[in-house]
């Protein structure tokens, strides 16, 4: 799938999720690629790997910003590996790199990425999680996310 313009979506979530979250992340990745956007993530396992795998299944482009200096730490579905050497501080880069952020279930690292994206004024969509945080739009279905992505990018192109 060819990407349209510079559409970039950050995806964040647990590095050790349960199976339902993995399945959801895979669907989220597929939706992002189908919308013609580049998927940005932390490049490691769990939600990051599942979302990247979903994007690749739809021919999408994936970027992983890994916390170490080793490219080899990235999951096998990452096309472009950015080594940061920043540890958890790389979460700021992940959150800042997308035009919007999609947050799946996670913990403190995910919360930090959600917070940074909100502070930067980026739209944040919570997939079944994070809806209690002011500014996060809670979505329950991937179909709803896909509609939101299409609307967001349509408006950002015409504005």
Can you offer a commentary on this structure?
The structure is a single chain. By secondary structure, the chain is α/β, with parallel strands linked by helices. The chain has a single domain, classed as Rossmann fold, CATH 3.40.50. Helix content is 40%, strand content 19%. It has five helices and seven strands; from the N terminus they run E-H-E-H-E-E-H-E-H-E-E-H. It has helices at 19-34, 47-57, 90-97, 108-119, 142-158; strands spanning 8-12, 38-41, 62-66, 80-83, 100-103, 124-127, 136-139. A seven-stranded parallel β-sheet has the order 4-3-2-1-5-6-7, sandwiched between helices. Helix 1 (19-34) crosses helix 2 (47-57). The longest helix has 17 residues, at 142-158. The two termini are 24 Å apart. The relative contact order is 0.18.
Named CATH topology: Rossmann fold
CATH architecture: 3-Layer(aba) Sandwich
List the strand order in the largest sheet: 4-3-2-1-5-6-7
State the secondary-structure class.
Answer: alpha/beta
Low-confidence stretches: none
What's the structural domain tally?
A: 1
Beta-strand segment tally: 7
What is the CA–CA distance across the termini? 24 Å
Principal-axis shape equals globular
Q: Radius of gyration, Cα only, in angstroms? A: 14 Å
How many separate helices? Answer: 5
What is the helix fraction of residues, given as a range?
40-55%
Structural key phrases:
about 160 residues; Rossmann fold; seven-stranded parallel beta sheet; about 20% strand
């Amino acid at each position: 799938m060819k990407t349209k313009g510079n559409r970039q979506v950050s995806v964040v979530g647990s590095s050790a999720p349960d199976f339902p979250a993995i399945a959801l992340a895979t669907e989220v990745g597929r939706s992002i690629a189908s919308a013609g956007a580049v998927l940005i993530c932390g490049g490691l396992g769990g939600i990051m790997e599942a979302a990247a795998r979903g994007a690749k299944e739809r021919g999408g482009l994936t970027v992983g910003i890994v916390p170490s200096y080793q490219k080899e730490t990235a999951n096998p579905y990452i096309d472009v590996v950015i080594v940061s050497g920043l540890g958890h501080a790389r979460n700021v880069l992940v959150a800042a790199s997308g035009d919007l952020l999609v947050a799946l279930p996670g913990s403190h690292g995910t919360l930090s990425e959600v917070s940074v994206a909100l502070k930067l004024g980026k739209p944040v969509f919570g997939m079944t999680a994070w809806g209690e945080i002011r500014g996060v739009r809670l979505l329950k279905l991937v179909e709803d996310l896909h509609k939101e992505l299409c609307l967001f990018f349509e408006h950002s192109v015409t504005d």
